[in-house]
Amino acid sequence: MAKFFSKIFSQVLLFCVLSFAGITSAKAQVAPNDNLSHAFSVGEEITYVLSYTWLFIWTDVGEARFRVLADTLNSNSLLHLNVFGTSYSFYDWFFKVRDVYESWVEPATLNPIRFNRDINEGGYTKENEYDFNWERNEVDVRIKRRGGENKYYTIPVEPETVDVVTAIYITRNLDFSKAIPLTSFQVNVILDKEIYKVKYTYLKSEPKKVRGVGEFSTLKFRVELIAGDVFKEGQYLFVWVSDDLNRVPVYIESPIKVGSVRARLSSWKGLKYELKGDLK
């Protein structure tokens, strides 16, 4: 049971990270910001509460924090996009989770340069490290599981393949004003040593209430999930993103095999533009 709940938490965090990856390929209806003025800046920090429900009882089990930092790698000035997920201390005895997802990207283009995933879930540990080589369109991968040895791979990728963290910030820098409802998109996302073709559909614009924060004008998306230990075949994840210049995910929800999972916006600071929520 503890292992199952650990998988639930890690999947909530993963799909909180993965939820916007697909829209990065929607170049036909969604345009990039050509003036390189991103929707975010160094110093931004956004936190989400992660929740699980079973038998109609919702429980907050942890949180995920997204930060934009300045960093230097191989003497190059880069953006460091850092995501940290943790179970609350009350639940640590049952399924302690400490997960890190982080990307280093070129500041102007947001092309990924390096990606790191370092997870600790109930004592299960795993490390992923990617170095992107865009001259060869390859990614050099290092994977290490608990108690195991480092394993190395070189994986060919298409030019627009992204890691899960970079995908979020690229998407936030796209203009959705011409997106057509019910249009679907696909993107290639690299995770572990696999390339996943993830399908997303833009549904509509609608107001969305977020507990403790307020009501936002949002754009709603549907994400096809990959069946496995946690998700069933044919299930969808739904994401609501603020319909403003920040394009911040404010709410994420999905059914799983037992119950449902949610991630809701709880706090933010350092946003480039004002994020307005109506608490009435």
Structural key phrases:
14-stranded antiparallel beta sheet, 280 residues, single chain, two-stranded antiparallel sheet, mainly beta
Secondary structure blueprint with pairings:
Layout lengths: L1 H17 L12 E2 L12 E10 L2 E17 L2 E12 L4 H4 L1 E9 L6 E10 L2 E10 L4 E8 L5 E6 L7 H9 L1 E2 L7 E9 L2 E17 L3 E11 L11 E7 L6 E7 L4 E10 L11
Antiparallel strand pairs: 1-10, 2-3, 2-16, 3-4, 4-5, 5-6, 6-7, 7-8, 8-9, 11-12, 12-13, 13-14, 14-15, 15-16
Structure report:
- The chain is mainly beta and 280 residues long.
- The chain has helices at 2-18, 92-95, 164-172; strands at 31-32, 45-54, 57-73, 76-87, 97-105, 112-121, 124-133, 138-145, 151-156, 174-175, 183-191, 194-210, 214-224, 236-242, 249-255, 260-269.
- The strands form 2 sheets. Strands 9-8-7-6-5-4-3-2-16-15-14-13-12-11 form a 14-stranded antiparallel beta sheet, with helices on one face. Strands 1-10 form a two-stranded antiparallel sheet.
- The termini are far apart.
Structure summarized in a few sentences:
With 280 residues, the protein is mainly β. Helices cover 11% and strands 52% of the residues. It has one domain.
